[in-house]
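Example 332.
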Amino acid sequence: MTVFSAVLLALSGCVMMTGDAPAEYKETRLYYGTYVTIRCLYGEGTPISGIIARCWDEAGRIQTAMDVRSASGDVGRINASGGLGVRVGSGVYGLLKDSIEFSRLTGGAFDVTVYPLVEVWRTAARDNRLPDKAVLEEAKSKIGYQYVHLGGDNTVTLRKSGMKIDLGAIAKGYAVDRIARILSAGGIENFLVDAGGDIFCRGKNSSGSDWNVGIRDPIKAGGLIGSIRISGAAVTTSGDYERFYRIDGERFSHILNPATGYPGRTVISATVIAKTAEEADALATALCALEGEEGIRLTEKIDDVEAMVIEKADGELRMLTTEGFPDIKRKQ
Ligand code: ADP
Ligand code: MG
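Predicted structure in complex with magnesium ion:
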């Protein structure tokens, strides 16, 4: 509790006024087990505190609804339903609908029903012992986005015994889009929202340029490989550098390949640029489950999406990008 409050204090919001220039608001809070930052520029007369309060309220509401470990949240209730239909809020219902679309689009590399496998790998890390083949097979048999039934009246039914859903690979992107929508609706035209590497930005930064977004170095903790300039778009980087399982001294990605039951092994980092943070988040996860070239080929087929993956093969690092991926300004 003490550590938590200390962090919040250190990160508490600040508003800077500089003459006639627009004021800047910047604040970071802890949600979804990561840091969420809102930065925006606003003119005089903007009811900024009300707008920002609505943004943080929304972040908290999404956290409760989508937390897989909360028994009272929508996702927790779906997972405890034992095959019966559960009525959920329109946020979770809509996101499940989108998730099923992304599962289809990625041939199941992104699968919202991966949770039984997540539980197996979490236990394996706790026991420091690789999972048995039989245990993996059993978990795999409970996966299948095709068995999530979305009925009328926001009702969700899991049609396979032992199935569980997990929106962890898309919820942060969704939250970023929701916050961005609240800012835009409040008349704020220049902003950047970042939830642990899921980013959406619009307009310009305080220097009048497109926003500069750093791409994390998958090898050097806390480092950047460079940055890209974007605006009016979302960018997400997923990788195994922040969250991973350690078993018997070996590091395993927290992104699992539902087809094999094993963590993605080749791609160590995937960066996706898309129109929404939700799409970028889902696709970045899928690209970490696939082989590098397979992921790039898949992305080339999707409109308005660009991607870069860094893969590790035979001890060498290789960077692959789609044709339209912007120039990366390298760190000196
Ligand atoms: P991060 O939270 O590090 O940004 P992601 O957005 O890629 O990472 O989400 C990773 C989380 O998604 C995992 O912790 C797990 O709960 C879930 N997950 C793992 N593999 C998959 C997958 N193939 N499809 C959908 N969700 C997954
Ligand atoms: Mg994701």
